[in-house]
Amino acid sequence: MSGQTPDRRTVLKGAALAGAAGLGVAACSTESKLGHAKNPTPTAPVELGAASEVPVGGAKLYREQRLMVHCPAQGQYKAFSAQCTHAGCVLDKIEDNEGNCPCHGSRFDVTTGKSLKGPATAPLPAVPVKVVGGKLIAGPDA
Ligand code: FES
Q: Which terminus of the chain, N or C, has fewer Cβ atoms within 10 Å?
């Protein structure tokens, strides 16, 4: 019977590890509800509303469309995916021309899409954008 104690300890240790793994899975599934999408960039043209809403020298976030538009100078626009290149969360705000990812704190330069702070290292993909009748249209063929 002396062999029973180590066996029991092994079982308990295994249960504790399984519990920790379970928590990890729960965290991941929460993230998947935050708007992750298979394609980080639009597959069809998307209208974003009045181009004048993007501040000159700044950027505007379009969370629903998962896009971000930067206006380097009056009448010029650059668009990027607003889906974080780390695990795919959608950026939640722009502060000091840096896009913030709410999931793990990555920051991106809104003027270039470049990652400024990890864990994300890859830049946000650029998306073609144009102005038609005063409205921004982003996506393929834009
Ligand atoms: S998903 Fe953006 S930092 Fe992890």
A: N
Amino acid identity for residue 3 in this structure: G
Looking at residue 122, the DSSP 8-state letter turns out to be S
Residue nearest to atom 3 of ligand 1 (CA): 104
User: Is 0.90 topped by the overall pTM?
Assistant: no
CB of residue 101 inside a 6 A radius of ligand 1: yes
Q: Is the CB of 61 under 6 A from ligand 1?
A: no
Give CA separation, 74 vs 71, 77, 104, 131, 142, in Å: 7, 8, 33, 12, 19
Domains recognised in the chain with CATH numbers: 46-138 (2.102.10.10)
Give the ligand 1 atom nearest the CA of 102.
2
Ligand 1 pocket check: which of 84, 91, 124 to mutate, most ligand atoms within 8 Å of Cβ? 84
The answer to whether 42 and 54 are in contact (CB under 8 A) is no
